[in-house]
Write a structure and sequence with these properties.
Chain lengths: ~325, ~475
């Protein structure tokens, strides 16, 4: 009996030991992370490390899971913590070294060009106009409690007014204008947007989304309201307590490299952080980045909970 | 934002209403069931117990397509209570059917001139009351720990203690608050559990009862019909949708090997099922031997039973917090999920095994020991064959419990270790007829599995009792 116990303990101890040289590098990413098999192969060929991708939900969920497991990290490197959640990551000290910017996208409203033409209404020029009578019942946004663009837009409104009273007044005005609130961007875009059979021609989305709506004849199907958008920058980095330091660093370098940067517009509908990389024509022509962005100096981390509580009060049910 | 008090009242309200309505429906249905012929009784009791053995999350899934798209907190609570009743009315009915009063008491009463109703109220009901109350409290307990169901049917509009624990921990990273709520939730569930056991110490057998009473119950007949029709419609709806939605039945089957429209899943439904089966085996290997050893003891072990009174969400949270302090490879390993699951699967199998083990008469065991049978030999040659049926039932419950478990897994199963319920939940929470078709197909398979299990174990319960009595 004793012998068995000793053997068992030895086996467990060995299993618990992390090997010094490991060829596996694990990347924690959000669900929208996309990388082609060719790129994965070229990473593996270039560096000799094997890549495993672990998806942990959306940006917020990714960040939180990494924080909750920081004493026993599930990955060696991460991709997808953005500027709205960076504060959480910093506060909990989970990143080893710097946050490296990989890509950015601008959260802006999109509208259905054909719908407005057919109904003879002038499309809005800015999100500030969405409370006006002619836009009653035309807009769909996502719940900032669950959705990253929703939170980005909430931040935009806080950046766009001087006092909280004004922010509340704005949200109340669009709520009273028959605003629809859905749980996720996918619901809003692929179910409620008029271009996919829904009944809302104005949808909260990204500046890059119109490039997916270009019609067969080359004319645009939707357009973005490019003023006062919110820029989401996504970062990658090495996680503290990882099991493969060299692999993690190599991976982060690869994500910043030209081949991956060139792939992000088509695979994830975002702009590469590396401005020297060429962007495909459809994006360059129909999905230009925002003309102006606001909210970059907001302290989202400290305010997030209070903003969400206030928002929920406006939409209480 | 809902206050703690509102969360508490919502949780308690849902639990109590579910219990009361289930009891109101279960009582006449159970009495009616008791009067059925053997074969019909087996069929009916299997059918009404299918929803009881389905995981709460899956019940939510089956009712989801029936919901209008826009619900608020009031209609959401209504749907949740209805789902709980659908799940538990069959359980209540089985308890009532198994706790029938002996025929001769009723006959004696009617000879003395008591009307049928009077006999029921003054003779039957008082004797059945403890069983009914205890079962009702268990229903309240189950209805207070149905996280997956609340999430699915509440569509974010209904907040209970469990949902708030999850958002506090996973979304707000407020572990302190989450633990506080977990304490409150545990107080509620333990309260139900301790009360249930105080009223009636031993759980009733679900299958098999004493001799049929052959009494007509019009109300029971109508309600039973209603319940059966509701169950058939709901389950039938799942099968129908798996056939009609998305690319049709075959297409949906093929899609189960894929990752959903727009690659919404991290692992395919097939891979997730593989994960769940792996967890199931590990959980079973842990839970069943421990339950067996504990059920052989003379005194009832409250320690073993205690985890029933604690929500899986609370367990998931506690283990999530603990995992940071465990050795690295263990703390991130998938093996945490089956370990946590076995915590509440042990008492489940204990409750099934214990009455049976206790019923094996002491004389047999003593005689066998004198003949030299100990340990494994005692199990394989003497006790085992006599309690083969309860062991099978326990194993089936453990398997179903692990397969459908949602609360703990949502805290502990990451990325490629996702389990089947987690994957199904993602499928239904993203738009797309194909995704829903896949979810319905997977749900249909699960239902068929449960129906098979229920039907098999509801049979020959009388023969196994005969064996034990003969051997005594």
């Amino acid at each position: 009996m004793k012998k068995i116990a000793v053997l068992a303990i030895a086996a467990l101890a060995l299993a618990g030991c992390t090997t010094q040289e490991t060829t596996l590098v694990r990347l924690a990413a959000h669900d929208s992370f996309a990388i082609s098999d060719e790129l994965i192969q070229s990473f593996q060929d270039e560096t000799g490390f094997e890549l495993e991708i672990i998806r942990l939900g959306d940006t917020g969920s990714l960040t939180n899971q990494l924080v909750l497991t920081k004493n026993a990290p599930v990955a060696d490197a991460f991709f997808g913590i953005d500027n709205t959640f960076q504060g959480v990551a910093l506060d909990n000290d989970i990143v080893d070294g710097d946050f490296k910017a990989i890509d950015y996208s601008d959260v802006c409203f999109n509208y259905d060009i054909d719908w407005f033409a057919e109904n003879g209404i002038t499309p809005p020029a800015s999100w500030r106009e969405l409370g006006q009578e002619q836009y009653r019942g035309l807009t769909v946004v996502t719940n900032p409690n669950f959705s990253s663009p929703g939170l980005a837009f909430l931040a935009t409104t806080h950046a766009g007014f001087d006092t909280s009273m004004e922010v509340f007044a704005y949200w109340r005005s669009i709520r009273d204008n028959d605003l629809k609130v859905t749980g996720s961007w996918e619901d809003a875009y692929f179910v409620d947007f008029t271009r996919y059979g829904g009944d809302r021609p104005i949808v909260l989305s990204y500046a890059s989304s119109p490039s997916a709506e270009v019609k067969e004849d080359g004319t645009p199907g939707s357009a973005a309201l490019l003023t006062e958008c919110f820029r989401q920058t996504e970062f990658a980095g090495v996680l503290k307590g990882n099991q493969n330091q060299a692999g993690a660093e190599a991976l982060v370098d690869f994500l910043q490299g030209d081949s991956f940067q060139a792939s992000v517009p088509e695979s994830m509908y975002v702009y590469p952080a590396n401005s020297a990389v060429e962007v495909p024509e459809s994006l360059a022509k129909f999905a230009k980045p925002a003309e102006s962005v606001i909210g970059s100096d907001l302290d989202i981390n400290s305010n997030r909970e209070r903003w969400l509580t206030d928002w929920s009060d406006v939409f209480d049910n | 934002m809902t206050t703690n008090f509102e969360l508490f009242t919502t949780t308690a309200l849902i639990a109590s209403f579910s219990a009361v309505v289930s009891a109101f429906i279960g009582y006449p249905v159970g009495n009616w069931m008791a009067g059925l012929g053997q074969r019909t009784k087996r069929l009916v009791s299997s059918l009404v117990l299918i929803p009881f053995l389905l995981p709460p999350f899956l019940i939510g899934l089956t009712l989801l397509p029936l919901q209008a798209t826009e619900i608020n907190s009031i209609t959401g609570i209504f749907w949740i209570i209805s789902a709980h009743v659908l799940m538990n009315a069959g359980f209540m009915a089985s308890v009532v059917a198994a706790s029938q009063v002996p025929k001769d008491q009723i006959e004696a009463a009617s000879l003395d001139g008591a009307s049928s109703l009077r006999a029921r109220l003054e003779i039957e009901l008082p004797q059945q009351l403890s069983g009914i109350l205890s079962a009702a409290l268990l229903v309240a307990l189950y209805s207070a720990t149905s996280y997956g169901l609340v999430l699915t049917l509440g569509q974010g509009q209904v907040e209970t203690l469990e949902t708030r624990i999850a958002t506090a921990a996973l979304r707000d990273l407020d572990l302190g608050f989450a633990l506080l709520l977990a304490g409150l939730q545990t107080a509620v569930t333990l309260g139900f559990f301790i009360l249930a056991r105080a009223i009636r110490a031993e759980p009733s057998e679900l299958f098999g009862g004493i001799e049929s009473t052959h009494r007509k119950s019009r109300l029971g007949q109508i309600m039973s019909l209603g319940l059966l029709v509701a169950i058939v419609i709901v389950i039938g709806g799942v099968f129908l949708r798996s056939w009609s939605m998305g690319p049709g039945l075959v297409g949906n089957f093929m899609n189960l090997a894929g990752r959903g429209t727009r690659d919404v899943l991290n692992v395919s439904v097939l891979e997730a099922t593989g994960n769940s089966l792996r967890n199931l085996v590990v959980a079973g290997l842990i839970a069943l031997p421990i339950a067996w050893l504990a059920s052989g003891k003379r005194r009832t072990s409250y320690l073993v039973l205690l985890p029933i009174g604690i929500s899986p969400v609370v367990f998931g949270l506690l283990f999530l917090v603990l995992s940071g302090y465990l050795p690295t490879s263990f703390g991130t390993s998938w093996v945490l999920v089956p370990i946590v699951q076995s915590l509440f699967l042990i008492p489940l199998s204990y409750q099934v095994m214990r009455p049976a083990r206790q019923a094996v008469s002491v004389e047999i065991r003593d005689a066998a020991m004198i003949d030299g049978a100990v340990g494994w030999r005692m199990f394989s040659s003497v006790e085992g064959p006599l309690v083969r049926k309860p062991i099978t039932v326990a194993a089936a419950f453990v398997a179903l419990g692990s397969l459908g478990e949602f609360g703990a897994a949502s805290f502990l199963a990451y990325g490629s270790d996702a389990t089947l319920p987690l994957v199904l939940f993602r499928l239904i929470s993203r738009p797309g007829a194909e995704n829903l078709g896949m979810a319905m197909t997977a749900a249909s398979l699960f239902i068929v599995l449960v129906a098979l299990v229920v039907f098999v174990i509801s049979g020959d319960s009388r023969s196994s009792r005969r064996d034990r009595q003969a051997a005594a």
